[in-house]
Specification:
This protein has 144 residues and is mainly α. The chain is built from three helices and two strands.
Length: 144
């Protein structure tokens, strides 16, 4: 997701057996201006942190707690700060659920699922484009 404008920049579709964290490097966008990468704690591992560092990314992935090991107050504070940016990205999932038929994809085969998800992402980006165009018109007319 583009944090500034809210556009979906790239995505991957896999079957349900593949954990989200396995797709992290496939989602890295070389055209992205920022060197920061945001994500929830499912994406955090020592290996991923090393790979991101080698690729020149600054990890903003949430810290995770482990069994019998609570997060420190500093880790909780950092996660809270990171959540302010991540929340912007989560809005597209809310739009999917509330306005675009939910997040359940009822198709047979991965090719059809990819098509449905691709079309939903396209529709979402059109919604964002219309939103920003309306904002620009409003601003030109002396709004804000």
């Amino acid at each position: 997701m583009d944090v500034r404008y809210g556009f979906i920049r790239c995505y991957e579709v896999t079957d349900a057996a593949v954990h989200d964290s396995q797709m992290l490097t496939a989602l890295l966008d070389v055209e992205n201006d920022s060197d920061q990468l945001w994500g929830d704690s499912a994406y955090r591992s020592d290996l991923e942190e090393k790979v991101l560092g080698l690729l020149g990314y600054e990890s903003q992935i949430h810290e995770r707690k482990y069994r019998n090991q609570e997060l420190s107050e500093e880790q909780k504070r950092k996660n809270h700060e990171r959540s302010k940016t991540r929340a912007k990205v989560e809005h597209n999932f809310g739009t999917w659920v509330n306005e675009m038929g939910g997040k359940l994809i009822e198709t047979i085969g991965i090719a059809r699922a990819k098509t449905v998800i691709g079309l939903r992402n396209l529709a979402y980006n059109f919604k964002r484009y219309i939103y920003w165009e309306k904002q620009a018109v409003h601003q030109r007319q002396g709004g804000f």
